[in-house]
Amino acid sequence: MSVVAFLLPHLNGLTSHARLRVLVNTQEADLLSRRGLNVPIDFVAIERSIQIWRDVLALVSLYRSFVANRPDAVHTITPKAGLLGIVAAWLARVPVRVHSFTGQVWVTRRGPMRWLLKAADKCIAALATDVLVDSPSQRAFLIEQGVVSAQRSTVLGAGSICGVNTQRFCPSVAARQAVRAELGTPADALVCLYLGRLNHDKGVLDLAGAFAQVAKAHPWAELWVVGPDEANWFEQMKALMGDARQQVKRVGFTSEPERFMQAADLFCLPSYREGFGSSVIEAAACGVPALASRIYGLTDAVTEGQTGWMHEAGNVPDLARQLNTLLANPADLAIKGYAARHYAVTVFAEEAITEAMVQFYKKRLNETTL
Question: Is 80 exceeded by the pLDDT of residue 9?
């Protein structure tokens, strides 16, 4: 999922400058070829959860691959793959070891698990030769927490993992009409969209509680909940919404998130932790402003009061109050939507972030081979 969602532009940009190989937990041998990339894939069974024995086997598999292929650089993404990949690359003496931090799981944890997960991130940063962070505010947080150093960490461009494809994510009247027709939503309804994984850290229960408070006053408003449900979170959301459930539409995983963004009026992301709000700038590129929590990562994706609005994370009354105000002022949603589109296109275009990645590797590998 991470490769398809975040790395395709970078892989495409780097293919003309280096020989690439992707190590990923998938049995889909054509994962990249059917997306137009002639890059070989190796299967490595990296589990997302802590599985000590399987993690050791994955570490050994990665080490053997690095020893056999002798890469000039290894680049890791996601916490578990980052830990195993960077340790294996260090053991194999790979010259350039790069990790991309895209958010910290331990931010919302307490006790020993927080210490353990934070220690894993510190280990990654210590063994990596270079650390990329996908937002300035996340980098400042990691430096303040003693996880990374200012000297060995950087943000590409203005931030984000891969920017936003402004050709794919753009306003579309046709998509707006089609998706609303599919879901049985009136053309003049005000649609609040949540799109992403359903879990506690995304604040989905807060959104359900806030929408329940304002739905009765805005019977023409709808909440669309789109994305995979990891642990039956939507049932918990419905339990909090009461009669407001009649104004809620549910869609599972989609490979076309842009269609739902193009059909929405307001993007909602009440998350407790984000490395960067990629979905926020994708919605912005579609001309949809955001109502998001005021946390590091999201403060880089939303210019408060200009391209969207922000609320205190975990504060349901604050979220409900702002949601109520926005639903009562649809003209303001449209105005902020134009500004959001301009912001996404001029600051976070995919081409700019990919070019920054290419230049990073050109400079870094030239330094290593001199």
Answer: yes
Residues 6+ apart with CB under 8 A from 164: 278, 281, 282, 284, 285, 344, 348, 349, 350
Domain parsing of the chain, residue ranges: 2-163+350-369, 173-347
Residues 294 and 223: beta-carbon distance below 8 Å: no
Q: What is the pTM of this model?
A: 0.89
Q: Does domain 2-163+350-369 have CATH number 3.60.21.10?
A: no
pLDDT of 238-253, one tens digit each? 999 999 999 999 999 9
- Closest to 222 in 3D by CA, of 248, 250, 204, 243: 248
Third-level CATH fold of 173-347 = Rossmann fold (3.40.50)
